[in-house]
Structure formats: structure tokens, C-alpha cells
UniProtKB/TrEMBL annotation:
Organism encoding this protein: Oikeobacillus pervagus
Enzyme class, spelled out: oxidoreductase
Job of this protein: Catalyzes the NADPH-dependent reduction of beta-ketoacyl-ACP substrates to beta-hydroxyacyl-ACP products, the first reductive step in the elongation cycle of fatty acid biosynthesis.
EC number in record: 1.1.1.100
Protein name stated in the entry: 3-oxoacyl-[acyl-carrier-protein] reductase
GO cellular component: cytoplasm
Length: 260
């Protein structure tokens, strides 16, 4: 006698865990954040695109998403400011009813060798890159704890792992994000929340376009894959972590092998 096991076939909607999720991408108006926002929307997530100054870019990301039938909203908030970050979370909840995934992506550089670095340049980078993740995460954590589900994905950097010439402020902010990721992962693991970091290497965006040509050439020559990464390659890592239930406290390197 043959026993035929009946397997319940998953519908593609069930298999796609991101369908219907509510996501905030800070700094989603340009570069890596814009691609992350679009790729998440393609998976059926409702995406809030946060920006600080680039209104037109943020609106064009929303337009792109709406053109393929996705759901998106642009929200202006300076995430270096606690009240504005709180507004971003409240606006998302009032629009979509919840927040499932927070991608802390907003970031700036103010590169200068340490002897020339002003206190203002130090504080600006620490406020936008590191204090912002306290602001957004503290505003959303109770919502995630109550719903026993959350994904927090922090876009750190290879510079936070390996250091960077003229980047003490940026490197400190990005290394700080990694410590934050691991500690918060420990505190929230039993509550259905995962906290991870993505550490991009050198990615083709406006930020890397600001690096002088000769320096960029020498950087590329040191990358085992001999090219810059693309914003979609970073977005793939974010989607992977957003889908994972059992990965927490990790740094996922997307760097062409330049730091292992
Ligand atoms: P871009 O300069 O292209 O974009 C930065 C984004 O951050 C913009 O959307 C900008 O919005 C937003 N932003 C800046 N300040 C604030 C603020 N105070 N509040 C809200 N949003 C803000 O950067 P990238 O796409 O290159 O970088 C994205 C992230 O990836 C950053 O955290 C960066 O450190 C990290 N990274 C980048 C790498 C690269 O090679 N490009 C490598 C490793 C890490 P607006 O224009 O409206 O101000």
C-alpha cells in the first residue's frame, strides 16, 4: 500500500513574507535607501520613504513605486532630531496602522583628517548616523514589542569595521551602529524582533561619487571583485534579513570581498 502524503501547497502570497508589511526606510529619497524602498515595495510592502531635504527625489521614488502598483508615502523628518523621528513613526502608524520593519539607512559623511576635524563636523555625523538610530528605534520599539514582531536593519559600513583615512567621525558612528545592533538583538530576541546590520563596502552612489577619481581607482584595485557594488546588491541583503526569522545580531557584509 502506498501512502500518499498530502502536502499543503503554499500560495506565493504566503511564501512572500514581506507582502503587506509596513516598512520605514530612513533616507529613502536617494542612493541605497531609494533602491531598498523600491525593492521592498516590489515584494508587496507598504513603504514610508523618509527624507530630510530632497523632497523631489522622495516624491519620484513614491511615483516609481506607485507606477508598478506598489504602496508608498514620503515623509519629511530630520532623524537627527528626536521629535522629528517620533513624528515619522506616528505618521507611519496613522497611515498604515503599524510598523513591521525599520531600515535605519540615513547617513552623511564629513570627511577630514582628525587634526582638522571640527567639533561641529564630529557632532553632525554622530547625530545623523548614530543618534538617529536611537531616535527612530526608541520611538518604534514598544509597537514592535506589543505586536511581538519586528525587523530592525541598520545600514552600517565597512568603515565601521576596518576604519577609514579621514573618517574618524564616520567610522565611530558606523562602529557604534554595530554595537547597538548586537546589544538590542540580545534584549529583543525573545520578543519576535530581530536586529541586524548590513555593512556595505564601496557602493556606486552620490556618496561614493564624491571620492576623488584617483582615490576611487586605488580603492577599486584593492577590491577582490574589482568593481564597486550596486545599490540593488545592498537591497538584496536587506530583503534577506527582513525575511529571516532566526538571524539576529549579525553584520552582513556586502563588499566584494574587500573585508572578510
Ligand atoms: P546618499 O548620500 O546617496 O543618500 C543619503 C540619504 O540619507 C538621503 O536620502 C538623505 O536624504 C538621507 N539623509 C541624510 N541626512 C538625513 C537626516 N538628517 N534625516 C533624514 N534623512 C537624511 O547616501 P548613500 O545612499 O550612499 O548611503 C546610504 C547609507 O549607506 C548611509 O548610511 C551610508 O553611510 C551607508 N553606506 C554607503 C556606502 C556607499 O559606498 N555609498 C558604503 C557603506 C555604507 P536628503 O537628501 O533628503 O537629506
Amino acid at each position: 500500500m502506498t501512502i500518499i502524503e498530502k502536502k499543503r501547497v503554499q500560495t506565493s502570497e504566503e511564501a512572500n513574507k514581506l507582502n503587506g508589511k509596513v516598512v520605514i526606510v530612513t533616507g529613502g529619497s536617494r542612493g541605497i535607501g531609494a533602491t531598498i524602498a523600491k525593492e521592498l515595495a516590489k515584494k508587496g510592502a507598504n513603504v514610508v520613504i523618509n527624507y530630510n531635504t530632497s523632497f523631489e527625489s522622495a516624491e519620484s521614488v513614491v511615483d516609481d513605486i506607485q507606477q508598478f502598483g506598489g504602496s508608498a508615502l514620503a515623509c519629511k523628518a530630520d532623524v537627527a532630531n528626536l521629535e522629528e523621528a517620533q513624528y515619522l513613526i506616528e505618521k507611519t502608524k496613522s497611515q498604515f496602522g503599524k510598523v513591521d520593519i525599520l531600515v535605519n539607512n540615513a547617513g552623511i559623511t564629513r570627511d577630514r583628517t582628525f587634526r582638522k576635524l571640527s567639533e561641529e563636523e564630529w557632532n553632525e555625523v554622530i547625530n545623523v548616523n548614530l543618534n538617529s538610530i536611537y531616535h527612530t528605534t526608541s520611538a518604534v520599539i514598544n509597537t514592535m514589542l506589543d505586536q511581538k514582531y519586528g525587523r530592525i536593519i541598520n545600514i552600517s559600513s565597512i568603515i565601521g569595521q576596518a576604519g577609514g583615512f579621514g573618517q574618524t567621525n564616520y567610522s565611530a558612528s558606523k562602529a557604534g551602529m554595530i554595537g547597538f545592533t548586537k546589544s538590542l538583538a540580545l534584549e529583543t530576541a525573545k520578543s519576535g524582533i530581530t536586529v541586524n546590520a548590513v555593512c556595505p563596502g564601496y557602493i556606486e552612489t552620490e556618496m561614493s561619487a564624491a571620492i576623488p577619481d584617483n582615490i576611487l581607482e586605488s580603492i577599486v584595485s584593492r577590491i577582490p571583485m574589482k568593481r564597486l557594488g550596486s545599490t540593488s546588491e545592498v537591497a538584496e541583503a536587506v530583503i534577506f534579513l527582513a525575511n529571516s526569522d532566526y538571524i539576529t545580531g549579525q553584520c552582513l557584509n556586502v563588499n566584494g570581498g574587500v573585508y572578510m
